[in-house]
Here is the input.
Amino acid sequence: MTAPVRIETMFDPYALRAQFPILKREINGKPLVYLDNAASAQKPEAVIEAVADVWRHSYANVHRGLHTLANEATEAFEGARAKTARFLGAGRPEEIVFTRGATEAINLVAASFGAELKPGDEIILSQMEHHSNIVPWHFLRERLGVVLKWAPVTEDGALDMDAYEALFTPRTRLAAISHMSNVLGTVNPARRLAEIAHAHGAAILLDGSQAAVHLPDLDVRVIGCDFYVFTGHKLYGPNGAGALYAAGDWLERLAPWQGGGEMIAEVSETGVVYADPPHKFEAGTPAIADVIGLGAAIDWVQALDRPGVLAHERALLDRTEAGLSDIKGLRLFGRTQDKGAIAAFTIEGAHPHDLAQIMDKYGVAVRAGHHCAHPLMQRYGVSGTVRASFAAYNTVDDVDAFLEALRKAITFLI
Ligand SMILES: Cc1ncc(COP(=O)(O)O)c(C=O)c1O
Here is the structure.
């Protein structure tokens, strides 16, 4: 009998780590084991340098100057837009609006798309949404009488697709769903979600805050969504820069949400003529260096062996879940196939906060709490979980250190 073929990834996380200065740190006298990547990822030298380089050598305000520095900054800023468009698979850079992050991008859609809604119009969300894809829609419920409907999550952590489809009615205007859950790791079938929404005459927004980091084949045109949002700081980029993709002529059709400089063509005492999109949605001075840093982060990510990184992160998750399966009283949330590299769990008799605090003593950084997902916590009847979330630079040593610290914390607490 021939031995099964093992596909080895060539991806080397140890070489990658050398690019991250912070990973050389010690925490409480122990090597840092950073497993809070779903909250925010650490930054490689290439990104740190790109941001510093703007401050040091080519900083000026964008879009308004006629001098050399202003032109250089504008070129780099608009270059980041072109990179973002290519990264997402958008047709044109003009379909990309820079925002502070996913939260601001969703608030933009809620304000501009929401301005056209009437009382009784419906928006479909899911139980696994992050609060940033919930609260802006609650504003519309409170202020306009829009009805929020909730697609349920199964015990395993999948989106119940039949129930999702059954929620649509002629009054449904939008579905707003995460592409990948920040707690369960579940990767939702984005294309199918979009097909269903469109078949019912509704638009769809996908929250790609986690998916943009982990899924190598992201393509908003293949997905066919109307809106896609993501945030730069989880993608190894600076915080303060993220993006909204709006397909086709959405940005032409929607009214701007914030007013100020940069978003106008002309202002008089009696009226305003708006600038063309995307500038119509970018009032005021943007986060210039951070947006350019986001462009550098995208370059950095795209230069990785992304399928190799995905396979590596999955291998880390498998090792983590195998280790967790030996622990008495452990409940793992999110058991779908091909989930992203996130392990959220509770342990009977030990509070998640206590576990995380003790693990910190061993240099292990994990998240504990509700992860900005109260409806999901309510769905599972828990107040919070511990969450270990992985990035390209994590290693099997990190997994083993995490499991060891967890066992010590359990021994201490139970
Ligand atoms: C799924 C998801 N959506 C939205 C956000 C919000 O991102 P930001 O705070 O960068 O706007 C997060 C951050 O944790 C997230 O995980």
Notes: The first strand starts at residue 26 and ends at 27. Residues 57 and 69 are 9 Å apart (CA to CA). Residues 38-39, 101-103, 130, 132-133, 178, 182, 207, 209-210, 231, 233, 242, 372 surround pyridoxal-5'-phosphate (CB under 6 Å).
